[in-house]
Every structure is written in structure tokens, then in C-alpha cells.
Amino acid sequence: MIGAHPSGVQLPLRVRKKLRTRQALVDAALELFTERGFDSVTLDTLCDAVDVSKRTLFRTFSSEKDVALAPVHDLWAVFMEELETAEPTGGPAFELLEGVLLATLGRMGADGWAERLRLSRRLSARTPSTEAHHLAFCDRTGAAIVTVMQRGFDMTMQPDPYGLRPRLAVDLLAAAFRRALERWVADPSETGHEGLADALRDACAAVPESLVLPARPH
After folding, report:
1. Cys-Cys crosslink for 28: which of 37, 49, 98, 212, Cβ 3.0 to 4.6 Å?
2. Which spans in the chain are helix H?
3. What is the pTM (predicted TM-score) of this model?
4. What is the pLDDT of residues 72-97, one digit of tens each?
């Protein structure tokens, strides 16, 4: 909810105004990009739609691509918050990561976020430059997640100086989420984040079986 911190504390007026401007930019960008195509929308057109200056836009976002990908970026920003306070029980790290992502989706259910995410993913799928920007973001975020895990959790099994195992756990989660997202976006009957959470559970449940999937000759 704009204007309130997740704890329920009311945010200062200046912060609330900044958040409202940010959301207005995202909503306008996704609408314009969807209607006209990413490369056909100029900065002037986007700024005029929200009645802000280019300076305001670039104080809020690094690029037009970041505006288009804001719903995904917001999801993983909240994921990082959840991961910082997660309490491991000694079970598999992958299961912990899945639980954190499901908790994150539960926090993202308000203010039309799910519909913005759907528009963003459809746009990215048909815009190669935006999809490349998204993949670079995912790689950076994966590295940041591993750093938090190594700092906060004891994952010692055997010597792993390059952090290969935690990174693979993160990569498996990212792959499962991507497949879940594809399924959810393609299903017009799924309009809320709950359907995405169900698709994620199914994808994560399939990960162990995928690792031992037999490849028999015909």
C-alpha cells in the first residue's frame, strides 16, 4: 500500500509523494509500451503522460528499461528483505529459498502489482533489449542472494570456495520461478498473485525429479 511501510507505520509525506510518482510512471510506461511497443515510446511521451520532468524520471529510475521491469525488480527487493530475516531450520537451502519467495509473493498482492507484473513480462518477452536487461538484473540479484546466504546461514557440507552449491540453489529457484511465471502469464484466468504462488509450488516440486529424469533410448 502506498503511504505505509510493511510494518504499518505511516511514511512521511515526501516519501509518499515519491512513491506515488514512481507508481504513476510505471503504470503509464507499461500502458504505453504495451500499446505502442517499447521502442516507439519516447522519454518525452512518457514524462508528459505523468506530468513529470526527465530529471524526475532519472532520479527514480536508471533507464526506461528499469521502469518497464519495475514490478520484477520490486519483487526481488522484497525477497531480499525477507531473506535477511529468514530463520533456517537445517533443511535444504532450496526449500528455504522457496519459502522466502512464497512469503514475498504474499506481500506483493496489493495495489495491482500482479497485473503490472503480467504486463511487464509480456513486454519483456517481445522486446529483446528489455529481456537482456532483465537477465543481467537476475544475474546480479542471484549473486546478492548468495552473499546474504553465506553471511547469515551455515551451509557447510564440503569445501566450496567458489560458492557453487548455494549459487546453484539460487539458480534453480530462479529457473523454477521463470517457468511458473510463464505458466501464470499465459493463463488469462489467473489474475492474482495466488495463482503465481501455486505455479511456483508446482515448479519447485518438480525440481528434484528433473535432476533424476531418465533419458532412455526409444
Report:
1. 49
2. 13-36, 43-50, 54-60, 64-68, 70-84, 93-107, 113-125, 128-152, 164-186, 193-211
3. 0.89
4. 999 999 999 999 999 988 899 999 99
By C-alpha distance, which of 105, 122, 107, 140 is closest to 68? 122
| Domains parsed from the chain with CATH numbers | 1-61 (1.10.10.60), 69-211 (1.10.357.10)
Count CB neighbours of 35 within 10 A: 9
What nine digits make up the cell of 22? 514512481
Measured CA to CA, the distance from residue 98 to residue 211 in angstroms comes to 17
Grid cell at residue 138:
537476475
Q: What are phi and psi of 4, to 5 degrees?
A: -130, 140
**Are residues 36 and 15 in contact, defined by beta-carbon separation less than 8 angstroms?**
no
